[in-house]
Design goal:
With 381 residues, the protein is of the alpha/beta class. Helix content is 36%, strand content 15%. Helix 3 (58-71) packs across helix 9, helix 4 (82-93) packs across helix 8 (221-233) and helix 10 packs parallel to helix 13. The termini are far apart. It binds pyridoxal-5'-phosphate. Pyridoxal-5'-phosphate binds at residues 81-83, 107, 154, 179, 181, 201, 203-204, 213, 215, 333.
Amino acid sequence: MDLSYILNILGEERDQYFDAVTPPIVQTSNFAFKTVADFRDAINTEQQHHVYTRGNNPTVEIVRKKIAALEGTDDCLVFSSGVAAIAAILLHTLRSGDHVICVKSPYSWTQYLLTEVFPEYNITTTFIDGREMSQFEQAIQSNTKLIYLESPNTFWFELQDLEAVSKLARKHHIFTAIDNSYAAGIYQHPHKLGVDFVIHTATKYLAGHSDVVAGAVCGNSEHIAGMFRRVFMGFGAVPSPHDAWLLLRGMRTLPIRLEKSASNAEMIVEHFMGHPKIERIIHPFHPSHPQFALAQKQMTRGCGLFAMILKTENKTQVEAFCNSLERFLMAVSWGGYESLIVPACIKIGDDYPAGFVRFYAGLEEANVLIADIEKALQYID
Ligand SMILES: *Cc1c(COP(=O)(O)O)cnc(C)c1O
């Protein structure tokens, strides 16, 4: 399936809604039946029917088909946030007494769930350096049920060898899941490399306009069917039809937005690489990245996220640098039209150097962004 077929045609049933080019927002909580027999049939096989919007909704279904097709899986569930999607995978694959292997420095709320919440239900996690295959092998226990990946992660941009990890997991009957938000369903396809579950925050690139919070889990039909009742309907973190429609609207332009954001990041990285006031730039698809060979093997490109470590230990200088940027907003998240920074000095963690700043390149002109950083570097000496 080509990309434009997925984004423009797949899942659209225009003859059902006046041949309108854009599908309607089916903003309803429930669906009515004409006979008791139909009602009984639908309620007993809810996954195949429209009964209630905490289960299926026609607007949401279009998005489900498209995201599943992007990742090359049978099916997908769309959630009300990326974290709801992450929690759903943990709840689907784990039971009391189970053990998880997770890469270190995953998304902050993934870390929170695995260290603060799931231990209360007798589920433990070993965090490992996912750059080393031997660390996966050594961490496997008899009760290990899930290997949780994030490649690359979105602050240090460390990679895991997805094919090798999937192979190892399969040998030991362990599930694999990856937070693939970075690659936006376009620059990396983990399911094709053997990963069981592919998770997205749709809040970022997929929706792309900083106006929706949503998430998705992609997997095979058997698993998605298993998740539908228990963790989707049962926990109820479903998207509103209106948010699903905004997500769909955002996805129409995903490839060109992604391309612009990625090329902006590449130009900024290229321009500042080796700059005397910058200690290091971390971008997973740049030849200077220690895992560039692996990146080339399993990804087709890097996206708009990268980090700079400014050459200073002086936090006042780092703050002055950040405060003076005019084209990079200071805010969490990424994947929208606007460029952003997150400096580590807002206390995102313990092991960051003082000069660490995470950048997201949005859709502005590259030369404008470069000039803005150039100007702000005057505060670093
Ligand atoms: C933002 C983010 C999430 C969480 O998504 P929400 O939609 O905010 O719940 C998960 N993973 C990564 C990599 C993210 O950047």
